[in-house]
Write a structure and sequence with these properties.
heterodimer; A: about 170 residues; mainly alpha; Four Helix Bundle (Hemerythrin (Met), subunit A); B: about 550 residues; Cytochrome C Oxidase, Chain A; 15 helices; about 65% helix
């Protein structure tokens, strides 16, 4: 998983480089300062989901499967909430502000970067859902802690990427 | 300690139906079978990409030739380059890595056997997708066709406006898919090397082949992924109206070049480091001396891995970067030659004072040494940006990189074939045919690629489908073409050798070369489980210790 994270970091780095390179270079259309709203609440959701997942993993290592499942479900819900928030933001940007992926450089780089991250969140949520289903079927026990830990690494990575994307897009880029 | 197979007496069996054998091979997760599948796949595409090269050479034999149209010529050099790098050399090297790394570290398989199979099939199907473009793609000129934008697909040629139809998309998606396969294999190699070494084999005792493949795998993780990112951006540009490389919206075509070469340069080191691995295993055995300077070999390779990530823009000296950038990349490019040179000295140091056996693997290794050295030197020539301004986009560059890839990497691959074929199949390749293969190939190689430098210096550009009859160009191009056909003949001898020796070759036994690494301790071919009992090693040459208990390496290390 560490190797996969290293490889994925390289992909995200290239998209971040493209984003930063093109900051301020759009010839037309809305600029970040005009249309972006900092998604503080949804960011807190996503970052808290890392915390809940960590605690869930600890519960599982101690054999407390009920607590594990509860916190795992909470992680999933927080992650889902983040995705919902992203979708809401995009809806607003597309329909109210007229910013699409083809509008200008900002649109292209913004949707690609945030979209790539959202795709990774979605993939992570899918894996979390699979674990949840297995959990409800009573098949996730202390022995599976190692696998849960590997999955947690991926989820924490997705969170870390969001910290970088958030900083680049909503703080530096404006 | 016995690491050989356990024999079971009086076993009776009937032959399996061929459908069952086919099913076993298609669904295998055994690293040895996947290795063989990778290698056979690469060999198949070698023949196809070789034919594409011959078509290029025939077209360039004399001025104003019309053997193929310009459109077809563009497709030929695009497909030749793309196929050779992604579907010939990478599969063959991954195949050898898959086969040998677990055996050499005393493991029973790779860390993630199913990921291994998945990675192979991703690569295989990526190649098929690329070649389907001949039937399904819609090139610039209407009829279904293959990509024709060069293997680097520079912006804005790759944009929808300049490459309508789908030929560029076949290029993009085929490489995207096989890129995922490569990343999967890299993850597998890293996990295997870090977690599955047998007892006693700490990293300082691991043979150089697993070490160098480990470095290569790390580079794959960081090099292939920028290409993946750039290709995703290209797809966004082509299909979603994005502007990543669209200068009319303020985008930058140079950005594609940066992203592509951030991939492209480490990629060629990904190709060459496994070749170094083969040399580091083969040269010692045929010099009857352990490798000179093992720690430095590892250190130099790691250094190459790092420095090579910082040299990419030497492919862009003529693009118009400022002089600070040009100087930086010129300096880093020269620096990457230093650890490489150290490795060459170490191989020579291994041979010095040894008792050289001029068997076919060693012949190819010696060819590698001299040719890779010259190739590196022509690279250093071009690392000086002003010199590169003259030579860029000329046949000098083409001669340089073919010298590295064919004169270096392909020679190392041939050496590896002759060395490990007995282990994989249980039969020796014919030495006579091997020597024919070697000498024909050396003559053809030098005829083609030594001469090719000259038209480059005289100013013949790359990527042109024909040329004016300038003084000297026609004669030189003719010689280059003849050399290409001699190389083709050598390859046919090689393929014939591979096929005929499978049935008629001398039986090899466990250890035909009197070598020292763990793969030679098992039968040829190895049993499915590799080792009946997991070996325990005490030195870098566990088989030397086994064969010479009175003078084991372990007392010196």
């Amino acid at each position: 998983m560490a190797s996969l994270i290293l490889a994925e970091s390289a992909i995200f780095t290239i998209f971040v480089v493209a984003y930063l390179f093109y900051v301020g270079k759009s010839l037309t259309g809305p600029t970040p300062g005009q249309v972006l709203e900092t998604p503080v609440f949804y960011t807190i959701c996503l970052l808290s989901s890392s915390l809940t997942m960590h605690v869930a993993g600890n519960f599982l290592k101690r054999g407390k499967e009920g607590a594990f499942l509860t916190l795992w479900l909470l992680t999933l819900l927080l992650g889902g909430l983040f995705l919902f928030g992203t979708g809401q933001e995009w809806h607003r940007l597309i329909y109210e502000k007229g910013l699409t992926i083809s509008t200008n450089l900002f649109g292209t780089t913004y949707y690609s970067l945030v979209g790539l991250h959202a795709f990774h969140v979605t993939a992570g949520l899918l894996m979390l859902l699979i674990v949840l289903i297995f959990g409800f079927a009573g098949r996730v026990h202390r022995d599976q802690s190692g696998r849960i830990e590997v999955l947690s690494m991926y989820w924490h990575f997705v969170d870390a990427v969001w910290v970088v994307v958030f900083t680049v897009v909503y703080i530096l880029g404006r | 300690m016995s690491t050989t197979a356990i024999a079971i007496e009086n076993l009776q069996s009937t032959a399996k139906p061929w459908t069952e054998t086919l099913h076993d091979w298609v669904t295998t997760v055994d690293h040895k079978r996947l290795g063989i599948l990778y290698i056979l796949y690469g060999l198949f595409y070698l023949l196809i990409a070789g034919c594409e090269a011959l078509i290029i050479r025939i077209q360039l034999t004399h001025a104003h030739n019309n053997f193929v149209s310009p459109q077809v010529f563009n497709r030929m050099f695009t497909m030749h380059g793309t196929t050779m790098i992604f579907f010939v050399v990478m599969p063959i090297l991954f195949g050898f890595a898959n086969y040998l790394v677990p055996l050499m570290i005393g493991a029973r398989d790779m860390a993630f056997p199913r990921l291994n199979a998945f990675s192979f099939w991703l690569t295989a199907l990526g190649g098929l997708l690329l070649y389907f473009s001949f039937l399904g793609g819609n090139g610039l000129y209407g009829a279904g066709n293959a990509p024709d934008v060069g293997w680097w697909a520079y912006a804005p040629l790759g944009a929808k406006a300049f490459s309508p139809g789908h030929s560029t998309d076949y290029w993009t998606i085929a490489l995207l898919v096989s890129g995922f396969g490569s990343v999967g294999t890299a993850i597998n190699i890293i996990a295997t090397v870090l977690c599955m070494r047998c007892p006693g084999m700490h990293l300082g005792r691991m043979p150089l082949l697993p070490w160098l493949n480990f470095v290569m795998a790390g580079m794959v993780l960081l090099a292939i992924t920028p290409l993946t990112a750039a290709q995703l951006m290209l797809l966004v540009d082509r299909y979603q109206g994005g502007h990543f490389f669209d200068t009319q919206a303020g985008g930058s075509a140079t950005l594609w070049m940066h992203f592509f070469w951030i991939f492209g340069h480490p990629e060629v080191y990904v190709l060459v480091i496994p070749a170094f691995a083969f040399m580091s295993e083969i040269i010692p055995v045929f010099s009857r001396k352990p490798i000179f300077g093992y720690p430095v070999m590892v250190g130099a390779t790691v250094a190459i891995g790092f420095v090579s990530m910082s040299v990419w823009a030497h492919h862009m000296f003529t693009v118009g970067m400022n002089s600070y950038a040009n100087s930086f990349f010129a300096i880093t490019t020269m620096c990457v030659g230093i650890p490489t040179g150290i490795k060459i000295f170490n191989w020579i140091g291994t041979m010095w004072g040894g008792r050289i056996q001029f068997k076919t693997p060693m012949l190819f290794s010696i060819g590698f040494l001299g040719q890779f050295l010259v190739a590196g030197l022509t690279g250093i020539i071009q690392s000086a940006a002003p010199v590169d301004w003259q030579l860029s986009l000329s046949y000098f560059v083409v001669a340089h990189f073919h010298y590295v890839i064919v004169g270096g990497i392909v020679f190392a691959i041939f050496a590896a074939f002759y060395y490990w074929y007995p282990k994989v199949t249980g039969r020796m390749l014919s030495e006579t045919l091997g020597k024919w293969h070697f000498w024909l190939f050396v003559i053809g190689f030098h005829m083609t690629f030594d001469i090719m430098h000259i038209p480059g210096i005289l100013g013949m550009p790359r990527r042109i489908y024909t040329y004016e009859p300038r003084p000297g160009w026609e004669a030189l191009n003719l010689i280059v073409t003849i050399g290409a056909f001699i190389q083709a003949a050598a390859i046919l001898v090689f393929v014939y050798n591979l096929v005929i020796s499978y049935w008629k070759g001398a039986k090899a036994g466990n250890d035909p070369w009197d070598a020292w690494t763990l793969e030679w301790s098992v039968t040829s071919p190895p049993p499915a489980y590799n080792f009946a009992r997991v070996p325990v090693v005490a030195s870098r040459r566990p088989l030397w210790d086994q064969k010479h208990p009175e003078d084991p390496d372990s007392i010196y290390e």
